[in-house]
Write a structure and sequence with these properties.
globular, alpha+beta, two-stranded antiparallel sheet, single chain, 5 helices
Length: about 190
Amino acid sequence: MAAKELINVIRPIVAISTYITFTALAMYEHPECHEELMHGDNNYFEMFVQEVRRYYPFTPFLGARVHKDFVWNQYEFKKGVLVLLDVYGMNHDSQIWSDPDEFRPGRFKEQKDRTFSFIPQGGGDPGKGHRCPGEGITIEMMKASINFLVNKVDFEVPEQDLTYSLSRIPTLPESGFIMKNIRKKL
């Protein structure tokens, strides 16, 4: 029981730190968003965070074993079979998202029911299905990180390898995200 609870403490820390790394990467790769972020508008912070969670792959896929035979959309799932959910693919599916390979926070301006079409931390209603119960905390921590990185400090990003592999979980840029000459804004 103690080990399980320890994992429940560590897991959200890994998730949040990974998403904060991708938030910093998004700010670096999409400087056109910087001006909006400097104004500290909570609505824009929310849109930016949601787009980071959609665009960047915290986890490219999730795996599970089928516990009981069932049929879904005319496809038979047999007990014991390993199935993979293509999280990255769904978050980049052109049938769900217009211009899915473009980083556009404005796509989240309209509130749509994305219970099963936007699944960076699971799908469904957190009260009824499997969606990460720490999702709200993750989003708020990402917004706080944006505010800190944009409005509280200045820094430089040295040359580094910011590519990431869709075969790793969690996914991170090869170099992490290195900053130098970090100083408090006056």
